[in-house]
Specification:
Order of helices and strands: HHHHHHHHHH
Low-confidence stretches: none
Number of helices: 10
Strand content: under 5%
Radius of gyration: 19 Å
Mean pLDDT: 91
Shape: globular
Structural class: mainly alpha
């Protein structure tokens, strides 16, 4: 008998998670450039071909956590409530993420999250790949906002705001402060950053 589809899907998810967890543990312990794909495959107890079926590159082994958020800004715009302007919805979504201390906002002081962001920000190949994810997000957001140049400009500004705010929050925590201590400043920074975008878009 063949394996049920649901069971196969769950096994694939478990394998993918096991590979990613092994990779991140090795990267955090040794550094990104000091770990080979063979090291990761051996630790996760899979073959290299199996590893590459789940992750196209070594960079993707660590950046899949960011990839999981790909298209999120565009989804916020498409799924916003009637009467809510796009930039206002994006502003509120980021504020909600701060209140939940979501790692993608940079406002999370779990030691592994802080170390993870340090690894990404300080490794040139990872920073470059992260930029590619952001450009893809920008394209998707532009399409959701407006098909013309206005949408592209707004999308570029929003993604830049996300990047700067997240990096700023992470740096404060990396310098030794707690997420709860930084939270009021992070909220104020977000409000200040989104204010001109909302004004330009005609939002209150």
């Amino acid at each position: 008998m063949s394996e049920p589809v649901g069971l196969r899907a769950r096994k694939k998810v478990r394998t993918r998670d096991a590979i990613a967890d092994a990779a991140i543990s090795l990267f955090l312990a040794r550094g990104f450039d000091q770990v080979s794909v063979s090291d990761i495959a051996a630790t996760a107890e899979v073959s290299k071909p199996t590893l590459f079926r789940y992750f196209a590159s070594k960079e993707d082994l660590i950046l899949h956590r960011f990839a999981d958020h790909n298209g999120e800004a565009a989804r916020v715009v498409r799924d916003r409530r009637p009467g809510v302007a796009p930039i206002a919805a994006l502003h509120q979504h980021f504020r909600d993420g701060l209140d939940r201390f979501e790692p993608v906002t940079g406002l999370n002081d779990h030691p592994e999250v802080v170390a993870f962001h340090r690894l990404v920000f300080m490794t040139p190949s990872l920073a470059g790949r992260l930029l590619q994810y952001m450009l893809e997000d920008e394209e998707a957001l532009a399409a959701a906002l407006d098909p013309g140049v206005r949408g592209r400009l707004q999308a570029a500004q929003v993604i830049a705001v996300h990047r700067v705010l997240a990096r700023t929050n992470w740096q404060k925590i990396a310098d030794g402060r707690t997420a709860r201590d930084v939270h009021p400043e992070a909220v104020a920074d977000a409000d200040q950053a989104f204010a001109p975008l909302r004004h330009a878009a005609g939002n209150p």
